[in-house]
UniProtKB/TrEMBL annotation, chain A:
Gene3D superfamilies xref list: Periplasmic binding protein-like II (3.40.190.10)
Annotated InterPro entries: Bact_solute-bd_prot1, SBP
Gene source species: Saccharibacillus endophyticus
Pfam family name, one: SBP_bac_1
Stated name of the protein: Solute-binding protein
Source domain of life: Bacteria
Automatic annotation (TrEMBL), chain B:
Matches recorded under Pfam families: BPD_transp_1 (PF00528)
Keywords, sorted A to Z: Cell membrane, Membrane, Transmembrane, Transmembrane helix, Transport
Lineage, opening ranks: Bacteria, Bacillati, Bacillota, Bacilli, Bacillales
UniProt key word GTP-binding: no
InterPro entries attached to this UniProt entry: ABC_transporter_permease, MetI-like, MetI-like_sf
Main location: membrane
UniProt-recorded name of the protein: ABC transporter permease
Gene3D superfamilies linked to this entry: MetI-like
Coiled coil: none
Species this chain originates from: Saccharibacillus endophyticus
Transmembrane segment boundaries: 12-31, 72-94, 106-126, 157-178, 216-234, 261-282
Amino acid sequence: MKLFNNRLGAVVIALSTALLVSACGSQAANDTTQAAAEGGKVQIKVYAQHFDEDTKGPFDYAVEELKKEMPDVEIVLDSAVQDGYQKLKTYAATGNMPDIYFTDWTTLQTFAKSKNVELLDDYSATTDYKNNLNTGVESRLIAPDGHVYAFPDTGIEFQLLYYNKTIFDEVGIDTPIKTYDELIAASTKLKEAGYLPLSIFAKEKWITNAFYNGLVTREDSQGLGALDEPGVTALPEAFVTAAEQMKNLQTAGLFDANATNTNYDQASSLFYQGKAAMFVNGQWEIYSSTEKLGDQVDWMYWPAKDEATFEQAKSSINGAGAPGGYAVSPGSKNKETAVEVAAFIAKKSAEYRYTKLGSPIVTPKVDKEIAGDVPAMMQRVADELLPNATQYAKALSSTEIQNAMNDNTQNMLVDGFTQEDFIGNLNRTLEKQNQ
Amino acid sequence: MNKYLGNKAALALFLLPALILYSVILIYPVLQGVFRSFYEWDGLSTATFIGLDNYKELFGDPLLLTSLKNGALFALVLVVFQIGLGTVLALVCANPRTRGRRLLKTAYFIPVVLSVTVVCQLWIAIYDPTNGLINRLFEMLGLSYRQNWLSSPTESIIAIAFVNAWQFMGYQFALLYAGVKAVPEDYFEAATIDGCGKWRAHWHVTLPLMRETYKFCFTIAITSGIGAFVQMLIMTNGGPGTTNYTMTFMIYRYAFMESNYGYACAVSVLLVLISLAATMIINRVFDREQTA
């Protein structure tokens, strides 16, 4: 037994030593990392999206430009994952925030409450950014509470209805479709001709919400943001009308029966293969649709209840600007530099999007030429839609109302769920949140 | 053996790592969950004590009713399919006269080792209302019966539960098969000599002697049903709307989509209590049968 105890003691000591050694090793590794800054450079850790061409290109370009502008700054990239900012929240909870991070308005609201985001109001970089904004995009920089939390690169993104011109010609549908009655008639014709009228990736709830918002903005240009107001305890008239329209469109067969289980790849391939005549997505879809369908595809304005309303609401954009972009951690050791770097990266990222990708949907003005090979649909956005835009929709800040809207607009695509169910469910949520 | 068991210091030393690990990864989070459920907390800011408000709100939450109903349905499907069919297959495979037993045993267990994501994608394709195998089969048989399997607000939960039941039936089958093989053959032979038919002998001899195995299988099936999540997330994302929500989905929504961690903790506490209650009831039922 004594031998057994001795052996046991030896094992315990060996394990403890191993733990101590590994702990020392880990400390040494940390020290090595910290000492990695070469030649006294300031290291700025950036948590940013860097997973595909659309995110890598702008960021890498901005970093290259930064090397010229601020040679003493070294960027350490921490690639963001598409996890609804959970990793970032974990960083915040454990006190490991990067100097700069890219995030959205929902997360910024939580970070503002927990003091994990630096208020940028009084920095000179913010003043410069404010003075260089494109028209109508203030809501991307200035939050509803009047503060600035992040520097945005992209502008206000919005949703469009895309259609296949060849199919429309073949079936004999006049374009543009202006009213919702015309959309129902088109839907019937397309179904009779064997086409799926509109392809939608309704497994993602935000797109059904965006579709509904498209109908709402014809009646109330604020869109879903109107539901954020205290005292709005029941759906306003515009929302009720839009709910009826959406249900009638569903009943008329506009959407696929399996729409709520269709993901983006499935929905887009139906459109690209010419099986679906229309498709709903953000303006970013222009590039993929042009690549797949060439000049067969175009976008149209959201239909309204009648032609007069259509003309009147034509320039109300179905997209809301919410604050978001590159924010700075208040715990950063190089906060002043981090703020300058965040503004610079946002600005240069926008520059890349404008000059290399040909996207005019950027927040800061770019004093360079737009890319030469802009798709025709995007050129139409730049020439026709953006200059005439009278109002963008207002962002909905309440996560609870947003989630209720997502759930119920998705339900509208299912048989048996009525507009009365929709109105009742939303009214209950509004009463709880806005009373 | 007694010599080793008498050494309390050695016992404590060997058990301590497991106990510490168990406490850190299970007991501590559960206690924290209970504690946090009395607070309004977004996961980052300072929490505000609100007493039982989260629980009061929870019992008036329409999602709770949907989740409880779905959890019960899910558990029922698992019990019927996994334990019911698992038992029949275990008895068949335990019969020495059954040909190809080894092949059958392997075949039943194969889905268990597949990735849940792969299985869900496979069944999404099978359930597709236009091109899916099931509706196409009806079409080939000349039947006009069609279902939109995953979009139906009432039936989609059963369709999803079936996927889980199909995939993990092999696991329950393995447990039940081991249980059948553990019953001494003498009892079964004695019953057949006394004139019992094969299935009657199983009913009166084999199955009652597998009580402990069944207790475990029922506990796994019912608690898995109550806490089901992955299949809903992959196959329908809880939709259409919230029709496929379970309590775990509620936790996911409130904690990670709405940053309402205090409320999510309250849902977690209720889920733990329901699972505990289910386990206790199962134990009580099986123990009572044993006493009787």
